Amino acid sequence: MPNARPDTPAPATPEPPLSRQDRKDLTRQSLVQAALRLIGEGRSFTSLGIREIAREAGMVPNAFYRHFRSPDELGLSLVDEVGATLRGLLRQARQPSSAQTSVVRQSVQVYLQYVRDNRVLFRFISSERAGGSRVLRLAIRHEVQRFVDDTARDLAPLEAYQGLSQASLHMVCGLMVNTLLAAAPEVLDLPADEPQSEQAMVQDFVQQLQIILLGAASWREAERR
């Protein structure tokens, strides 16, 4: 029997079969992505029905109920995803650096990049934060408070903010977080081919946050009187 040619490719190793949990996760993610595609087409989340989401995902409606009890529960998973990911990114951006200004600027840049990379998610968040179902409004409000708590925890050890009462520190951090959240629609409307407009937006938000932080230091002095 002749020897095999040396350039004959080795037989491909078959992919291991997906586990039941893997298949379940893929189906769940397909439903989430289907909802996001519909939102990306200009639909409001509150207008989406179970049958429509399932049809977009190529499934029967009963498949939806194996993963979510309602569209609101699917929406809650989106809120959790945005909150967990963005809080982690901003926590990393707030790590001590050579100057406070660079930390503020880095945080703004990280936030703007995340908004640009997740446009549909932020359209969903912006829309549901202002309207939508009460369940989602409360969930978004809870995530905002977690952002505030995280920011306050990072600022508290800094010398400039030691002596501020906890209530005042959380008020300052709330102003910072809400300033960034309010910026999301402006970021989404920013043309991709105008880097100068983006730089101007970054500078504007950096200055807004710096003004809030400077005001916090002055407020600390007022509290001491």
UniProtKB/TrEMBL annotation:
Domain HTH tetR-type as annotated: residue spans: 25-86
Keywords, ordered alphabetically: DNA-binding, Transcription, Transcription regulation
Gene3D superfamilies referenced in this protein's UniProt entry, alphabetically: Homeodomain-like, Tetracycline Repressor, domain 2
A Pfam family: TetR_C_46
InterPro entries recorded: DesT_TetR_C, Homeodomain-like_sf, HTH_TetR, HTH_transcr_repressor_FabR
DNA-binding region(s), residue ranges: 49-68
Biased composition (Pro residues): 8-17
UniProt-annotated stretches for the region Disordered: 1-25
UniProt-listed NCBIfam families: PRK11202.1
Protein name: HTH-type transcriptional repressor FabR
Gene that this polypeptide is encoded by: fabR
